[in-house]
Amino acid sequence: MGTPVTIRHDGEIAIVEIDNPPVNAVGQAVRQGLWDAVATLDADPQIEAVLLTCAGRTFIAGADIREFDGGALEPWLPEVVERIHAARKPWTAVLFGTVLGGGLETALGCHYRIAHPDTKLGLPEVSLGLVPGAGGTQRVPRISGAAAAVKLVTTGAPICTEEAERMGLIDRIVTDLPADALHFARDTAAKPVPRLDPGPAQTDLTSEDWEELREDVTRKARGQISPVRGFDTVRKAFETDLAEGMKLERQAFMDLKASAQSQALRHAFFAERAVAKPAALDGVTPREVASLAIIGGGLMGSGIATAALTSGLPVTVVEQSEEAAAGARDRIAGNLASAVKRGKMTEDQRDATLARLTTATGYEAVAEADMVIEAVFEDTDVKRAVFDALATHARGDAILATNTSYIDPTSFTGAVPNPDRIMGLHFFSPAHIMRLVEVVRTPDTAAEVLAAGFALAKRMRKVAVLSGICDGFIGNRILGAYGRMAGYLLEDGASPAQIDGAMKAFGMPMGPFEMFDMAGLQIGYSNRKREAATRPADQRYSRIPDLIVEDGALGQKTGRGYYAYDDGSRVARPSPETDAIIACEREARGIAPRSFSDEEIVAMLHAVQVNEAAAILEEGIAERPLDIDVVKMMGYGYPRWRGGPMQEADARGTDTVLATMRGIAEADPGSWTVSPLLARLGADGTPFSTLDK
Ligand code: 3HC
């Protein structure tokens, strides 16, 4: 294999080009190539200035993350960056695409930076559980000051060229490449090579300001350590010289690289990309979808329509009445208006997006659509009526998708000819914001139809995960086990506030009971009634959730559920009425309340999810453990820095999880079956990740 770094000449200018597809990550070979290039060009009397650029779609998008699991290979990136900065000739980085992490740091080692207007720049290491490790925490403060450095390092959010120019990170925005770059380089040749001041960076911030900023970063990090360590490392730039700051940065980078959080976040990064490539779709070409119809313009239908319209598709929303159709249009317009407000689109883009929307009241309107998504009420009969109508009104080759979140699609799509075009597309609410879509395959679904579901999700910038059929599919089925365990813990003596508090300390955005109250308790109530006929007779059934609903408490919207809420407030406070129901029911069942530690609560709620997930894997509902991790992280708020429940199981040890699960099953015989897969892996602590290959 040739070197990924080549040098060519344009008169007295050398052009150093990195060609390391797909994103020109700086792996060992690139680092070696750059190391050698500096020496070659320093020694070349013909050369007066250097341009550093990349082949393909982007300038360097970061260090090669795949190398992070092993030991650091020489030459290290910080040394390469230093060496470029110490070069005798001026180096100019020519930026385009996504200049991220080690890519931006390499550019900052260069003496000048010019960028195409569409370039995005950032230090996203924090989202991999890291701090920038090649000078980012030390050079940015010296170039851009404290506020800019803290923002870049602790949020990881990319910035545009205008902002980068304001921060002093780029010297010029250029449109005509490579001509402008050559011109720029020729100008630099005549000037002395600029060097970064190696003294401490300067700031007006007082130590109180720093403390306040740190508190803010810590609060937003919600248990993740890298933002706080990044903050502390940036602060060092204002207290020490560059050489000392670089040493501290290296230490922070190495410490974090070895941390469980960074391993989990790297797992999350690769898992989010791997879910797009299930074995079932290997080599399959998706069926083309150029137009979409959506049946039902309620909250869900409007959200899906918003996402589809924003992705550039023309969309027809079918409702039952003119009034409902107008309501759907209003909701979609409202979603787009808030996108404008958040700076996600301009007003012109909003108008163009809305112009692609048609609303209608009859099924005739779906006649031309390549794909129809049903997004009506979650009820088998209601959904069957829709599919009966689609059987006659939709094109014979149109893809028909149902946005069911629990119900088996085959139970209501019987009237449709060619069932190979039917699939489930389970969007999460609000569908224009939440990025997860479960693509549900029936026994008949054609592979190119599933692939079309994946392509649609990608187009909408969502992440699709393949799921087979079971009650609740991957995510809601696991949620069912989680909710059931939370209910048992409650009945056995823990309070809603303790359980929620423990799960929030674990990193969940909210605990199970706050979540139930927010979603409304009615849905769970109906589900339990639906499941009553099939529930195993010896399974423990906690009546507390039903008793609360039957007492008229349906969650936040009624001002009371597991907690009480003041009028219009979302702030939960204990509800004496609900607490009385819980106490009464414990007494009626002869349960002497026992105390649980927060660790026990977390371990038990984790174990039942892993146990259910293991069953899902055994049944072939999910292909790989990583699919489950992505569902839980993207759809249910599972902390990314824990990498999902399966990654967490590997971190805790599958043997430990198995022991917890066995304890739970023994305490409530008939209520839980220990998954044979968990039993097999847990027997010798084999990690779930061994099944990801
Ligand atoms: N290292 C290794 N592989 C990488 C990579 C990296 N830094 N960045 C992307 N890739 C791989 C992806 O895994 C994917 O591989 P696959 O095709 O086998 O699945 C392929 O490149 C394409 O990536 P995407 O599918 O994500 O392509 P997009 O066009 O959607 O996005 C991107 C491109 C914005 C560059 C996105 O990939 C990204 O955000 N990458 C990570 C950037 C990053 O975090 N950089 C910092 C790395 S850590 C670092 O630099 C440490 C330093 O401070 C020392």
Descriptive notes:
- The chain is α/β, with parallel strands linked by helices and 693 residues long.
- It is 47% helix and 11% strand.
- It has 27 helices and 19 strands.
- α2 (77-85) packs parallel to α3 and α26 (654-667) crosses α27.
- It starts with a strand and ends in a 10-residue tail after the last helix.
- Residues 22-23, 25, 61-66, 77, 98, 100-102, 105, 124-125, 128, 132-134, 136, 273 line the site of 3-hydroxybutanoyl-coenzyme A (3HC).
- Residues 22-23, 25, 61-66, 77, 98, 100-102, 105, 124-125, 128, 132-134, 136, 273 line the site of 3-hydroxybutanoyl-coenzyme A.
Distinct ligands: 3-hydroxybutanoyl-coenzyme A
The radius of gyration over CA amounts to: 28 Å
Query: Helical segment tally?
Result: 27
- N/C terminus separation: 26 Å
Overall shape: it is: globular
Q: How much of the residues is beta strand, in percent?
A: 5-15%
Low-confidence stretches: none
In helices, the fraction of residues equals 40-55%
Mean pLDDT: 96
Describe the main β-sheet briefly: 8 strands, mixed
Looking across the biggest beta sheet, what order are the strands in?
12-11-10-13-14-15-16-17
Number of strands: 19
Structural class determined from secondary elements: alpha/beta
Give a short summary of the structure.
The chain has 27 helices and 19 strands.
Characteristic terms for this protein:
693 residues; binds 3-hydroxybutanoyl-coenzyme A; globular; alpha/beta; 8-stranded mixed β-sheet; 27 helices; 6-stranded mixed β-sheet; 19 strands
